[in-house]
Structures are given as structure tokens and as C-alpha cells.
Amino acid sequence: MVNEFLEKNLKQLGAGAAFLLVYVPTFIWMWDRWFARDSYYSHGILIPFVTIFLIWHQREELASTKKTNSALGLPLIIVGMITHAFGSLMRVYFISGFSMLLVLTGLILYFYGRAVFKKIVFPILFLAFMIPVPLVIITNISFKMKLFAADIAASILNNSGIPAIQEGSIIRMRHTQVVVDDVCSGLRSLISLMALGSIFAYWMKSVMIKRLILFLATIPIAIVTNVFRIIFLSSVAEIWGAQYAGGLFHDASGFLVFVVAFILLFMLGRILE
């Protein structure tokens, strides 16, 4: 049985092995970014396993799908490899990471055809969530998000009876101040929630427009829940002291906010269905 499988899929296995070998530097770069301190992509290690599960979930449907070689795969493989070579030489591994999706798409089309690819297009595209965005872009977006969150939080605190002044990413109150740093910008939860929202939209039994609405809703949900986290921590710091708003309490509130965002996303999905 094993020998028969190897004989029938020798070319595919060889292409797969070559693919993994060529992209070893890119995998190492992604691994370092996934497990870096205060990483925005700590979820990255889970993405390939989710993709594998989604494809495995369609195993019976895929087994009955006609498999044909498609010449459309070759141009994608060639363009992807050229892009990978450029990204590797310039040490821009973000470019190399996305070339990997291009090459993978080309391999699937070449060996299995368009019918198979159409059935697994989402699991393949989902792999994009494991590729870290360049740090310069992350820093820029995070900076804007934390300023926006601090501005909204200070405004709501003032309207709630807690005098607060925003100075950049700092919220000054009567007895203390809270610094909205990069970790509290909400970008980390936004990236993770977008990945989760895409799965919800994929599994949602409804028309495409409603799926798109659900996916895009992850952005305001992540931003709003993060703002309320900052308001909550600022209130705790002002009323009970800054020492109570840091440490374990700070980290626990981040986890709780993500849970609330998850529940809101789930409820919205049910409403749209």
C-alpha cells in the first residue's frame, strides 16, 4: 500500500520536498517572528495546522474530484520562485513569504488542476495570516492605533466623571497616568481576530456579502473592545492605584477582551445567518 502510494505520488512528493527545502530560510524567519518577545504573530504557528485541518475536513469531497494537470500552474511557480529569489537576496523575507503562497498555488494547479484548487482556495489563502508584516509597517500602524485608542479613551473617561488629558499615547488623570504602549494598541488582537473572523466567514452558511461583512466587522470589534480595555485599566489605576492596573491584571484583561471580541463576532455571525 505504501509503495503503491509512493509510486503514484513520487513527483508530487519530490516537488513538495523541494518546496520545503527552498523555503527553509523563510520558515526560520517566520519562526523567529512568531516567538519574538511581544510578537504580533504568536498565532502564526497554528495557521498551518488550521489549513491542514480545513483540507482534511474536505478529504471525501477532494477524493471524488477529478484531478488533471493544469499548465496555469507553471507560470505561477516560475514567477513565485523569481520573487522568492529576489526577496531572499534582498533579505526581504516578507516578499519571500508571499511568494511561497504563489508557488504553492502553482504546484496545486499543476499537479491537481483547477477543480481541486477551487475547493481548497480558502485554506491556502488562509496561510497568509502566518506571514508577518514588516516591522516598519507594524510600528506605523500600531502607533496610529494607540494614539486613536488613547484619544477615544480619554474622551469617554471625561464624559464618565474621571478627568483625563491625552498627551500623545499618555492619559493623565488626577492621581495617576496610563501609558498606552504598542502592546496595548490593539493591533495584536486585531490580527488574531481577523484570522478567526475569516474562518467564521468561511464556515458561515450565507451569501458572500454577509460573509464579507462578518470578516470586515473584526476591525471595529477589535478596536472598540481594546478601547474599553484601556478605559477599564485607566479607571482601575485612578480609583485603586496604578499598581493594580499592571502585571497579571493587565495581561488578564487583554485575554478577557479577546474573549469578549470572540463572543461579539460569534453573535454577529449568528445574526447574519
What would your notes on this structure say?
Helix 2 (10-22) runs antiparallel to helix 7 and helix 4 (47-57) runs antiparallel to helix 8 (114-126). The protein is mainly α and 273 residues long. It has two domains: 2-132, no CATH class; 136-272, no CATH class. It has a three-stranded antiparallel beta sheet with strand order 1-2-3, with helices on one face. The protein starts with a helix and ends with a helix. It has helices at residues 2-8, 10-22, 24-34, 47-57, 59-63, 73-89, 93-112, 114-126, 135-159, 187-203, 208-216, 218-240, 247-272; strands at residues 164-167, 170-173, 177-179. The chain contains 13 helices and three strands, in the order αααααααααβββαααα.
Question: Concise description?
Answer:
The chain is built from 13 helices and three strands. It is mainly alpha-helical. α10 packs antiparallel against α12.
How many helical elements?
Answer: 13
Order of helix and strand elements from N to C terminus: HHHHHHHHHEEEHHHH
Give the number of domains: 2
Strand content: under 5%
Q: What do the pLDDT scores average to?
A: 88
Task: Give the low-confidence spans.
Answer: none
Assembly classification: single chain
- Overall shape: elongated
Beta-strand segment tally: 3
Strand arrangement across the biggest beta sheet: 1-2-3
- Fraction in helix: over 70%
